Amino acid sequence: MTQNDKTPTAGNGEACGHEKPGLLERTLEPRLFAWRLPILILFLLASVLFGWQAAQLKPDASFQKMVPASHPFIANYLKYEAELRPLGNVVRIAVETQGKDIYSRAYLETLHRITDEVFYIPGVDRGNLKSLWTPNVLWTEVTEAGMVGGQIIPQGFDGSPEKIAEVRANVVRSGRIGSLVAADQRSSIVLVPLLETDPDTGAKLDYGQLSQRLEKLVRDKYGKDGVRIHITGFAKVVGDLIDGARAIGLFFAITFGLTVALLLWYSRCWRSTLATVFCCSLAVLWQLGIVHLIGFGLDPYSILVPFLTFAIGVSHAVQNINTMATARLSGASNMETAKLTFRQLFIPGSVALLCDAVGFSTLLVIDIGVIRELAISASIGVGVIILTKMFLLPILMSYVGVSDACLRHQARKQASRHRMAHALARFAEPRFARMAVAFALLVLGGAWTMSRDLKIGDLDPGAPELRAESRYNRDSAYISGHYATSADVFVVMVKTAPGECGSYPVADKVDRFQWEMENLAGVESTTSLFSGMKKVIAGSNGGDLRWHALSRNRYVSNAAQRVLPSELYSNDCSMVPVMIFLADHKAETLARVVRAAQAFAAANDDKTARFTLAGGNSGIDAATNIVIAQAQTQMLILVYAIVALLVWWEFRSWRVAICIMLPLYITSALCEAIMARLGLGVKVATLPVIALGIGIGVDYGIYIYNRLQHFLDRGLDLKAAYFETLKGTGAAVALTGVTLALGVLTWVWSDIKFQADMGLLLTFMFLWNMVGAIVMIPALAALIVRPAGTRPAARDEVQARSHA
């Protein structure tokens, strides 16, 4: 008789860990193993379908998905999107000369070619494109004959010294130095507003393709021969994120290789390792295919979900390998061990995966498209893992079993003295339990104190999604250092009755509002229709500075308004945008501006004018920060409440729920403390980390307490029961933590900073949740869980076996 043909005897049924199956297991198990071949064929057909769908996935990003579309700020902005487009989704191309200044024939001709090149790039709002060459950028001057003006670069420009001198004079007269021309006059800007959808085809703007065209047609083509190109803007950030995400394939390959090596080292079995990796890879394939079927793409945030899907699948499958090896060592056949694994792990594994799904799904309360897509994609991944790990893996293992090398390795582990298990089991003693809990509470207090410094939003200049040394942030630093008008623009929309936007009552309020904003810390300057109107009125009166003021005379103000660009007010003259240029887009700056603007609006709004927030890139950032601040507490309450409810449903004890949930809370507090110390704000990239850490971290506690309860029910005292738990499940739980950490650790080397930040924080949470579960669960159980009566015979039997 071969070992595969052996069946467990009555005497070794306990050793195998046989459980009394519940109704669900009794219903599913016989059908699952009786229909193994048809189920495998069904999985194969589904894999072909989802694989075909996954092959069609493409990078996807959208400006509107990155913002909280239902927030009042965004709703107000979208209402006037056409008028405010030059202040929102805009690319700035700074063309820097390596010569003395921009006033040379070679530079101006290069700028002309760049302007024409950009004009024909799909997605550009050509009517609002601006550079020194475009007809919508004018100069004006007061002369004895009145006001005169024209294009900065005149018609018939031939590059002669006379024309160059004329351009120099026109730039000064235009007042564009500091906005369209650098303060040192060694560079100028091409301002490129974008259309989110093509008006002819209705196709969405492809940010990745747009970024590639800007690089190829502008930077690579013209960034030579004495010219240097700097490009900034939301679209360029997204394009660089998509480029950086291309390295994800390499990171996944490294993670895959490390995981295979770790599983092989743990199990010493190629069969179970390959079966596990196959099932988890299949889960990734299914997840990607389903994501494409429901109409999603891969944006820079959700592209990380396949890593989590693979890591979660492997971490749960470790429990299958451990249970299979233990049962086979006791003499069970492959089929019997597969059935035993299903019975023993189906409920705790399913509950743990449901907790994972809860952690992801609570992100749906955050009204930001990319976070909601991440939540849906990750929840799909967890659902797929339930199918592949709970149903497909036991079927495969019933065929392949485990190798003799695995059984020999398992026998060596069982024959070892388990020094680590003995040491950790002491935390189940009241004396050591009190010490562990006291230390944990001290850690919690320290973490909570440090986490009070945690901020909402971005805390760094430039694009914090990218590394400080990235080309984008170098370009951003150049433009910020050479131009007076910041790229961080906060827009307040002043609503009036149609045709009344230029009236004196409106002008007076806007003028007072600008004065208050300009005296606010973090505000560099402001501008509006009435800023230009003052200059025009003064210019119409011989340039006398005494006339540099608002006029109550409607004829005067109307005449001045007609001279000014139409972008300074809406088509029906019912809205005037006030542009507030900020020193940065840090959370504190944005919050200060929002408070001041809302306070002014509350005190001054009436039927003549209403101050409405907010547009511009900084207005959108402010709305995002507000949504995240509101959703943070709501999300945490939801994830803790639902996970705790699932844990209570599994173990029917609120004391057990506390034992499992308290270590998670301590880890969350530590994570927030680390974020505060590292200068990471709570934002779109980091907020999901906490929910993911809680949902996935609870897996350790569920698996540990499930086995602990099994030994307690057999009559062992807590210390002996925990020792037995650590001998079997403890090593698997430790490997689970390491596997999950490996799944995200490679992100730390990503060129995309927010991916690196998420990888660092998730690695910490996965490992610390594992340590917290192993140490804190027995300690808390020793103090708050009421011990059941023990059976001395069972206790003596286990203790004698462990000493043997």
TrEMBL record:
Keyword field: Cell membrane, Membrane, Transmembrane, Transmembrane helix
Classification via InterPro entries: MMPL_dom (IPR004869), Mycobact_MmpL (IPR050545), SSD (IPR000731)
TM regions (residue ranges): 33-52, 247-266, 273-295, 301-318, 345-366, 378-402, 432-450, 631-649, 656-678, 684-705, 726-749, 761-785
Any single Pfam family the record assigns to this protein: MMPL
Membrane topology according to the record: Multi-pass membrane protein
Compartmental location: Cell membrane
SUPFAM superfamilies: Multidrug efflux transporter AcrB transmembrane domain
Every SSD domain range: 274-399
Ranges annotated as biased composition (Polar residues): 1-10
Positions of the UniProt region annotated as Disordered: 1-20
GO cellular component, one term: plasma membrane
PANTHER family (UniProt xref): MEMBRANE PROTEIN MJ1562-RELATED, SSD DOMAIN-CONTAINING PROTEIN
Record's protein name: RND family transporter
Organism: Rugamonas fusca
